[in-house]
Amino acid sequence: MNEPDQEFTREILRKVRQIEIRSNRLVSEALAGSYHSAFKGQGIDFEEVREYQAGDEVRSIDWNVTAKMGTPFVKQYREERELTILLAIDVSDSGTFGSSKRSKRERLAELGALLAFSANRNGDKVGLLLFSDRVEQYLPPSKGQKHVLRVLREILFHPNQSKKTDLNEGLRFINRVMRRRAVVFLLSDFIISEYNSQEESVEDLFFKELASTRRRHDLVCARIHDPCELEIPNVGMVHLEDSETGEKIYLNTSSRNFREEYKKLNQEHRQEFEKRLRRRGVDHFEFSTDSDYVRSLQEFFHMREIRRNR
């Protein structure tokens, strides 16, 4: 009776080892220094003043001390070396969709693993939050390879307890539990129901909670999509079922007008979603189930580094 359990355990260990090897290689080859440059130095404490030296930034001059001493002095800061990273991953059933080799859930797992190994390589703490329409698993931030491997196992093999999504539940948990400022990666497809709750839409309530999280933490939204969600292919009459609600519909994808209208409305909604993120100062990047998510992450790190150095 134990054989299936043993076989499943071996499969878990095999997959974890595969992703561990690949992630460590990618961190070494593709992301070396990028993660550090993008996030280190967010927490800085004033340490002391010293006399100005040639090449010092003029902006760092302490004018009060300079006026008292009669010679230029600059402020020195000590960088807070350790960061806390929280991976908040949507494990609802919409993530099971994938028209290519990988589902959205699998791609999110790979990205989460890469971020976890990047944090571990830089000596940072990593925590994990898995949520659907409820909090399903929480691992408090900690250090070390053993902890990171546990994070990876949970991301890959956690059996979700609910099919549905409530992004607000995850955000409320973060706001309640995470006392220390952290870099929060919110990984989801961000498919939000349009049903109304009281007088506000679910999406409006989400952005209110998002703004609250942004005030407490450095929040980054990583959005996954499948190509078929952006543009419906012409495959004739199809039968679709919502993986979260079970609702079933028939669509005639051979209609060119329908496909063009769907693409237009989808683009408009995504543009509005991104605009609302920017208004709240929330960084974001997007990647696809069939694209190079490592490149997307590199470009995001590079953008953060440029902004930090301005």
What is this structure's SSE topology?
Blueprint: H1 3-29, H2 34-39, E1 44-51, H3 63-69, E2 73-79, E3 84-90, H4 104-121, E4 125-131, E5 135-142, H5 145-157, H6 167-177, E6 183-188, E7 196-197, E8 200-201, H7 202-216, E9 218-225, H8 227-230, E10 237-241, E11 248-252, H9 256-279, E12 283-288, H10 293-308
Parallel strand pairs: 3-4, 3-6, 6-9, 9-12
Antiparallel strand pairs: 1-2, 4-5, 7-8, 10-11
Helix pairs in contact: 1-4, 1-5, 4-5, 6-7
Describe the overall structure:
Strand 7 and strand 8 form a beta hairpin. The longest helix is centred in the N-terminal third of the chain and has 27 residues. The strands form 4 sheets. Strands 5-4-3-6-9-12 form a 6-stranded mixed β-sheet, sandwiched between helices. It has a two-stranded antiparallel sheet with strand order 1-2. It has a two-stranded antiparallel sheet with strand order 7-8. Helix 1 packs across helix 4. The chain has 2 domains: 33 residues, no CATH class; 227 residues, von Willebrand factor, type A domain (Rossmann fold, 3-Layer(aba) Sandwich), CATH 3.40.50. It is built from 10 helices and 12 strands. The chain is of the alpha/beta class and 310 residues long. 45% of the residues lie in helices and 23% in strands. The model has no long low-confidence stretch (mean pLDDT 80).
